[in-house]
């Protein structure tokens, strides 16, 4: 996207956002990146914010050369905890520690001081647009965090530009615009793996209410954008259990009768992916430059392509076992449950054919 009616966007040859201007082409922000494509500087007016990284996470933020904030994160890096890659725990601003409390999508829900008192709260719409509230749930006067907290929707960093009139979420490989509900640039992996919807700028296939954050477990290994940034799914459903993996898109995923089977199916995938994930992360850490990192990604993707049918067959086998188990359960005996189970069993057969399982 180069112009959204209000702001103009400029990119470098690697398709990274370098400048944001207003409609009159007056500079709003400038961005700079390092060799690995990480955003290392943001210049707004006379303020230059620079970022020091540990791997893919910002650990120190500087303003005009003096350090302003430090960040500490949770440990998640690999399935089944991969969705915690963006789990800020603590922000220190030189005089105070602030702790994050998160919701089920690992979006920041509140910022707490060191005695555990809430100092600021955050709410989101389905497309992730953040709203800053004070401790008593009243709207913040200017809509900007009083504590300069950048971590909001799905634990990712927000750039509040033009006094908060433009909010861009930085998801490492690309930026997401809450207002239009789309990415500024294309998914770098294109349509290759069939997980995108109708276009490459789409956010959650245009249906953030139907897609759960947890679906990253399967997606992430296929797409580096998603590994590093995928955390963009919101949940407007009423699912209470925390799944360990899975793409929750179909009716049977939401059925009380068959949902445990989706869970068991995805758990199989999580187990399958773990070794390749581990290998990938090691490769990524050892890589010296972007080219080497790309190589790690190719190896991983090739593994997924080579093993897809085998992995799917194992997982659908588990689904079939589960469906058998569920037949004995009351929830699946009659009415909607029974219908859901029948539909699910049909899908198992279809999937087995599709993946040429024996
Ligand atoms: Ca404020």
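Sequence proposed for the structure above (358 residues):
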């Amino acid at each position: 996207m180069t112009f959204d009616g209000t702001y103009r966007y400029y990119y470098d040859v690697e398709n990274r956002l370098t400048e944001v201007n207003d409609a009159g082409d007056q500079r709003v922000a400038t961005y700079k990146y390092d060799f690995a494509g990480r955003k290392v500087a943001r210049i707004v007016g006379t303020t230059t914010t620079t970022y020091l990284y540990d791997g893919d996470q910002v650990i120190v933020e500087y303003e005009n050369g003096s350090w302003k904030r430090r960040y500490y994160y949770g440990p998640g890096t690999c399935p089944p905890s991969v969705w915690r890659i963006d789990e800020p725990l603590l922000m220190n601003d030189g005089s105070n520690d602030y702790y994050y409390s998160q919701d089920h999508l690992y979006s920041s829900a509140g910022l707490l001081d060191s005695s555990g008192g809430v100092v600021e709260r955050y709410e989101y719409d389905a497309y992730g647009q953040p709203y800053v509230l004070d401790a008593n749930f009243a709207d913040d006067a200017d809509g900007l965090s009083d504590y300069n907290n950048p971590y909001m929707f799905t634990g990712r960093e927000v750039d509040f530009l033009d006094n908060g009139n433009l909010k861009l979420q930085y998801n490492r490989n690309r930026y997401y615009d809450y207002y239009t509900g789309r990415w500024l640039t294309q998914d770098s992996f294109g349509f290759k793996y069939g997980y995108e919807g109708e276009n490459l700028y789409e956010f959650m296939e245009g249906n953030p209410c139907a897609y759960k954050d947890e679906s990253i477990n399967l997606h992430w290994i296929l797409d580096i954008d998603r590994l590093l940034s995928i955390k963009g799914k919101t949940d407007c459903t009423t699912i209470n259990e925390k799944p360990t993996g899975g793409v929750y898109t179909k009716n049977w995923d939401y059925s009380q009768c068959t949902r445990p089977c989706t869970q068991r199916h995805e758990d199989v995938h999580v187990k399958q992916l773990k070794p390749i994930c581990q290998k990938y992360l090691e490769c990524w850490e050892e890589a010296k430059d972007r080219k080497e990192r790309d190589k790690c990604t190719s190896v991983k993707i090739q593994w997924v392509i080579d093993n897809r049918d085998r992995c799917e067959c194992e997982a659908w086998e588990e689904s079939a076992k589960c469906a058998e188990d569920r037949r004995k359960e009351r929830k699946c005996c009659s009415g909607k449950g029974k219908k859901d189970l029948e539909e699910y069993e049909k899908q198992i057969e279809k999937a087995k054919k599709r993946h040429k399982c024996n």
